[in-house]
Amino acid sequence: MTTMNVNTKVRSGETDNTQDVPGSRAPLVLNMNKFNQVTQQVCQVAEARRTPMAWYITFAIGLGLLSLLGFCIVYLIVTGVGVWGLNNPVMWAYDITNFVFWVGIGHAGTLISAILFLFRQKWRTGINRFAEAMTIFAVMCAGIFPGIHVGRVWVVYWLFPLPNQMEMWPQFRSPLLWDVFAVGTYFTVSLLFWFTGLVPDLATMRDRAKGKIQQIAYGAFSLGWRGSNRHWHRYERAYLLLAALSTPLVLSVHSVVSFDFATSQLPGWHTTIFPPYFVAGAIFSGFAMVVTLAIPAREMFGLKNLITLRHLDNMNKVILLTGCMVGYAYSMEFFIAWYSGAIYEKFAFINRAFGQYWWAYFLMVSCNVITPQLFWFKAIRTSIPIMFALSLLVNVGMWFERFVIIVTSLANDFLPFLMGRVHAHLGRHRNLLREFRSLPGDVHAVLSLPPDDRHRRSEGGHARGGSAFR
Amino acid sequence: MPPRILFFAVALLSLFAMVPFAVIAWVRSAPSPGRPIHIIQDMDFQPRFNTQTLNPLFQDERAMRPQLAGVVALGEVGTPHFTDGVVDGNWAQALPSEAPMSMDLLERGQLRFNIYCSACHGYSGYGDGIVNQRAMDAMSNADGPIYGTAWVQAKSVHDPTVRDQSLGQIYNTITHGIRNMAGYAAQIPTEDRWAIAAYVKALQKSQDARLQDVPTARTCEPEQMSHASPTIDLTDRNIELGSKGATARIACLFIGVICLAAAFLLVFIGQMEWTAFWKAWLQNWFFILEISLGALFFVFVQHLTKAGWSTAIRRPAEVLASNLNWLWIGFLPFLILLLMGKAGHIFPWSDMEMLAAEAPAEAHLVEGKRAYLNTPFFLIRALIYFVVWAFFGTWFLRASLKQGRTDDSAPTRLMQKMACPAAILFGLTITFATFDWVMSLSPAWFSTMFGVYAFTGAATCGFSVLIITCILLQRNGVMVNVITREHYQDMGKLMFGFGMVFWAYIGFSQYMLIWYANIPEETGWFLARQLGDWGWFSAWLLFGHFCIPFVFLISKHPKRDWKTLLFAACWLLFFGWYDMYWLVIPVIPHDLGTFETYDAAVQAYASETTGIGHPVNWLLMVGMLAIFASFTIARLRAHPLLCRKDPWLKTSLDFENF
Amino acid sequence: MSATTKPSSAKASQADSPPRSYGLIAEFETPAQIMKAAERVRDSGYKWWDCCTPFPVHGLDKAMGIRQTILPIIVFFMGMAGTCAAFVLQSFTNASDWTVWAGVWVTGYPFLISGKPFMSLPAFIPVMFELTILFAALSTFGLMFAFNGLPQLYHPLFRNKRFRRATDDRFFIVIEARDPHYFKARTWEFLESLDPIAIEEVED
Question: Tell me, what's the pLDDT at B391?
Fold first, then answer.
């Protein structure tokens, strides 16, 4: 609660609290010395009488893109999953890439709320709420893709073990079904965690609310919380328990997602390091997304004293750390592919780096491993524009990581006949419109992939015979 | 379909039907000066004479009849002490013999007091009972007392004038009443009045007690009652081993040498093959190495994250890690064997001719890896690992000692910087060292996860030995109050999280992925660990390394108690060793690929034994651990046991879990 | 000691009896103050009392003498129940051909796929794990609020203006009238001795 101490200095409009003095912790919030000031600062965003124009504009854009998504989904359902370019051999591409990408984004929220909580990292409090909200929306985005990928979306309830007259059950030995349980549990627990954390704050909003409607709404959702310490006692226990449960859960979710690939026999997919590697990658991309969202949020809503430069600095360090882990995993895959002595493994990785999708691989490595190394320099870790750019690059890189894993491995199956490419087309336009929806703050963006050549490639790559043992 | 009018009629009627209830509810709840309507009579109004009213039946017209003069109720006559509370014309100081003192009496007194007295005097005797409370509410009305209430508050039994009264006088007051208070002789039997009097005395004592009044056996130490932490002794006496541990060091060295010698002897007299012996050596040596690597991980992670809580326990970890500068000695036998070209039975890739003769298919695969798996490169890599480990292992200890001599925090800053390259190089070296020394024992097999698995092993062994070291230091009378149960709880959490849960996660993922894909190059490695006795061995690994300690350690209480934590740490350390045995010893049979079915392979190797009962294994384990302990004790004695002057020291000493 | 307001109620003048009192609240400014005050209240033997704070104050549980909640133990067993439920579900549907009654008659359907045994324990573990977490998390969430007696949308304290700062920056001690030791004047005096900013009576 100290206003200024040895750990802070003002530099070009930003209060720099990243100076380290061993033995003392830097202040978590700046320029505040009363509890009330913190409440004021936090609540003013939601209580502001006039919604800023920028919000309407971004919301309109977001809504537009959302309706475009709705249109695309309807088109997809009416036409079939072929519009994604799904065919033999690439029967998974953008759908599963997006699914894995969004689930990964979600991980940062849980990491911040649960794992950093268990590690007593108090700085998490500045960012955990919107990271948790980001998790929930990211998991919702993720849920869309397998949902529409299944083709007959009207029978998606078959994914659940519901008694039925056909005596038909889900196939529990399939990793895809594990996904249903993992992502479903993850969504539920994230929601509970988020809401549990929110209840006392809703009570604050209730007690500050001026209008009747606000009072009733906040009152209902705050469940009558009154800050009783007998309640706080159980609340804190429960929060700790939820954190302790979410920590292995968050590890399990992306591990299960990685099992979708790693349980197969496909070179490039089947490798044992996938579970921890996917988890590290998920945290990596998620933190990048938090930085991407935190920078505009703190600018626009005046939260610079709460989300300080130190928060950003710390997040950049986590990005650097997980980036190095991802780099470790890339190199392990490559090394073991060579070390395994299996020609298919070797080919899969050579092809990944130098084959028809070399550009995707190049994007992935440069965005995920090389550019984050800039974060070794403190000047870059504390420079807002550079970290914003780098966080965007990481997001791009992580999307391409999933693309590379899924598409390059599938596109080159064991038979020359089964070597192909993926094309997506929407009506006459061969562009794929993908949807980046996140946060109620509504940052929407759209990316489109450059058109691809339409021809199946039957040449290219080594001819690969059938495997004797497969 | 009934006519619509009927609906309206019914609705209207139901509405009207509600009116009486609504009126009654309103009348019952709304304040009004009139008498409330009484719906449920409850015998509230009955023909009777109220107290203090007239009764024309009697001549004196008193509704309350006085007792006739000279009437004595049955059993009412007793000693003056018992009936009147008087002894020799003075108020009695003690209980009469008819109602002797006992806990039962006091409890009876409390019960009666709460029934008869508390209404006015309050449960704690302050005169704040419910009657009084209501009266005071009526008195404190903003517009003056309602109906001119006048009220004298019941006396507090803690009032000095009452407090100094003797037992007999209090008994007398209860019996006959005083001022506004009526006598209770009619309602309360004599024994109970004494019981109440005794309880009142106890109640008075309870509100006016001194510490010396409390029996010594029941006293809590003042320190325990307040939150103030005990004074922490930071003098040399508490944070240096000094002359302690000399015997233990010599004894450990002695035991170590004897055990190793005995193991050698057993092999010399032909109790074990040399090949098997060197594999057992490799397993035990790597196990010891994992302890130090785990400790090194602990040290640099604290600097990397700028942790504050751990400073009090960092020195033992630094000392454990510093052993990395001599542990390379254990590698020398393999250096010699490799240079002599006789390591083919341990590292099959080092003797390709033999491998080609025994297993041509495997040799074909290994041929492709010669660029990596060849003796010179293998030795160069080993040299790199040892240099890196020895450097970081000793560097952190030296830097930390330097910090202990200066008030400047520069060494700490330097350690924080150094933690970055340490982390990267640690990750790479432990990965490739495990590939080299464990994975290449089955040269055709591969798993990208293997380095991570080895790291979890290091965490298991390193954290459990760190816990054991801290507990043993405290049992020897040093670091008292410096290392607290808070630190133990956190170390326990780390052991639980990394050594067990993360181990299980990595182990399961590796197993499940290979089991699921079922690709022949990979499954052989696990199949070898399921044949014959190895199946049970693997099951024990799962239960011993994860399931049992998971249930045992999941609560915070066993982590906070040194006895249970010591037990858990020793258990896990043993299973760390057991895990190494499981990794190193089994050999994939060369003919595994020739069996038609899985069951056929299992049948053929049903009599496979694990050989864990062989004394050489245990002698090597005890011997190497003892020598390791001996060196560790020597270094612990040479340095202070606490990172003095560390900037985070105070944080660590004051640290408390939430 | 700053100004303490005496209770006043306009309605009481017309009514026979004054409105029932819920209890007294005392307001404090810092966590340290309420910590000290809570220790005093605890030691004076009150049972029906509470501290209301905008955030959990570290150590206040101890100062209030709150017993550890049994929530974690229940959650542990709920988690185990989740594990068992998942195992039963998977082995019944994929590895048995039994017909059992679970609301309706259902039959398991063992079928061979990807060469895996019917009872593929390694393949069952992910779902077992997920359901463990799901059961445990749901029971943590539900039981925490249930034990706290929430949701409770009305509470006498909410009518007090001063108390609104309990969710912002002020720390309150509430002693309820139903406490056997409660006696307004004496409790008021006692609260005054704790040196709060203000004391108020709260009507039920």
Answer: 94
B chain contacts of residue C62, beta-carbon cutoff 8 Å: 227
The model's pLDDT over C24-38, given as tens digits with 9 standing for 90+, comes to: 888 888 888 888 888
- Do B391 and B441 reside in the same domain of the chain? yes
- C-beta of residue C108 within 8 angstroms of C-beta of residue C162: no
Please report, as a single letter, which amino acid is at residue A243: A
Report, as an integer, the average pLDDT of B486-495.
91
The pLDDT tens digits for B121-146 are: 888 888 888 888 787 777 776 666 66
* Binary contact (B446, A119; C-beta < 8 A): no
When divided into structural domains, chain C yields a total of 2
| Residue range of the domain that includes B379 | 245-653
Domain, as residue range, for A123? 39-162+169-415+423-447
Q: Is the pLDDT confidence value at C107 over 80?
A: yes
| Contact between C13 and B133 using a beta-carbon 8 Å cutoff | no
Which amino acid is located at C93 in the chain? T
Structure tokens at B611: 């050989």
Is the CB of residue B368 less than 8 Å away from at least one CB of chain A?
yes
C26 with C93, same domain: the answer is no
- Evaluate whether residue C36 is within a structural domain: yes
**Higher per-residue pLDDT: B14 or B230:** B14
* Rg of the Cα atoms in chain B: 42
Q: Could B448 and A333 be called an inter-chain contact, meaning their C-beta atoms sit closer than 8 Å?
A: yes
Residue spans of alpha helices (H) in B142-245 = 160-163, 167-176, 190-206, 222-225, 236-239
> In the 8-state DSSP scheme, what is residue B156?
P
- Which stretch of DSSP H or E encloses residue A398? helix A384-403
Which of B31, B118, B128 is nearest residue C15 as measured by Cβ atoms?
B31
Give just the sign of the alpha carbon dihedral B389, B392, B396, B399. positive
Task: Report, in angstroms and rounded to the nearest whole number, the Rg of chain A calculated over CA atoms.
Answer: 24
Contact C51, C171 (CB under 8 A): yes
A177-182 long-range CB contacts below 8 Å, 24 or more apart?
A177/C127, A178/A256, A178/A259, A178/C126, A178/C127, A178/C130, A179/A146, A179/A256, A179/A257, A179/A260, A181/C126, A181/C127, A181/C130, A181/C131, A182/A252, A182/A253, A182/A256, A182/A257, A182/C126, A182/C130
By Cβ distance, the residue of C72, C114, C148 closest to A241 is C72
Query: CB C184 to CB B137 under 8 A?
Result: yes
User: Are B515 and B565 found together in one domain?
Assistant: yes
Locate the DSSP E strands across A69-154.
none
Which two tokens mark C38?
A: 């809570």
Q: Does residue B16 lie within any of the structural domains?
A: no
Q: Does B647 touch chain A (CB under 8 A)?
A: yes
CB pairs under 8 A between B and C: 60
* Residues C141 and C76 occupy one common structural domain: yes
Taking the Cβ of residue A263 and every Cβ of chain B, the question of whether any pair is shorter than 8 Å is answered with yes
Is residue A61 included in any domain, yes or no? yes
CB-CB contact of C26 with C191 (8 Å):
yes
pLDDT over threshold 90, residue A428: no
- Is B68 inside a domain boundary? no
Nearest to C136 among A167, A184, A245 (CB): A245
Q: What is the ipTM of this complex?
A: 0.85
Contacts of B658 in chain A (CB under 8 A): 120, 236
Give the nearest partner residue to C181 out of B123, B137, B508, using CB atoms: B123
The type of residue at A154 is W
- Whether A430 contacts A51, CB under 8 Å: no
CATH of the domain at B151: 1.10.760.10
- Say which residue, A227 or C3, is predicted with more confidence: A227
Cα of C184 to nearest chain B Cα, Å: 7
Q: Give the predicted TM-score (pTM) of the model.
A: 0.76
Between A301 and B289, where is the model more confident? B289
Interface test with B, best of C13, C14, C16 (most B CBs within 10 A): C16
